[in-house]
Amino acid sequence: MANLIFNYKRNTMSGFYRFFVPALLAIIFGTACDGPSKTVQLNTTMQKEHDALAGKNWKLEELMGEPVVGRNAAGEAYIKFGTDSNRVSGNTGCNHFFGSYKLAAPGQIAIEKVGSTKRACPNMDVETNYLKALGDASTYKLDGDVLLLGNAGNDELAKFRNASPK
After folding, report:
1. DSSP symbols for 43-71
2. What is the DSSP string of the chain?
3. Model-level pTM?
4. Looking at the domain that runs over 44-162, which CATH code has it been given?
5. Residue 157 in 3-state DSSP?
6. pLDDT tens digit string along 72-103?
C-alpha cells in the first residue's frame, strides 16, 4: 500500500513539473525577448521627422489661436520631445509635465499618459488649456523653427517656436 501511494505521488508530481516548469520558462523567456519598448525605432522618413522634432526646447507662443504672454511662477511654457525615447516633458508655465509620444506617420502625433506636478499658480487657465491641447493633438507641422500641433479637424491647438541655442 505504501508503495502504491508513493508511486501515485511521484507520478502526480512529475506530471505537475512537466507542465509547470516549461510554462514558467515560456513566461520568463517570452517576456524577456520582447526587446526594448522605450526606444524609438522608425523608418528613414519618420527618423528625419523625429530628428527635426526631438531634442529641442519648443517655447509655447500661442494656445488655441491666442498669444501666450509673459511668465508664470515656474517660467515660460515649453515642450521637449526625447531624442532616444518616446518621452515628452516640459513646463506649463506653472507646473512641470511629462508623458509619452508616438509619431505614427509624417504629420501624425499622439501625446499620451501626461502627468504633471500640482503647484497652484495665479493663472491656471493657460496650464489647463495647454494640457488639454497636448491630449487632443493628433497632427503636427514643422515649418522651420515653428511647430504647430493640431487636432483631427485641422484646428490649430498650439504654436511653438524653437528656443534651443543654435
Report:
1. -HHHHHHHHHHTTS-EEEEEETTEE--S-
2. -HHHHHHHHHHHHHHHHHHHHHHHHHHHHHHHTT--SSS----HHHHHHHHHHTTS-EEEEEETTEE--S-BTTB--EEEE-SSSSEEEEE-SSSEEEEEEEEEETTEEEEEEEEE-----S--HHHHHHHHHHHH--EEEEETTEEEEE-TT--EEEEEEE-S--
3. 0.71
4. 2.40.128.270
5. strand
6. 555 789 999 999 889 999 999 999 999 999 99
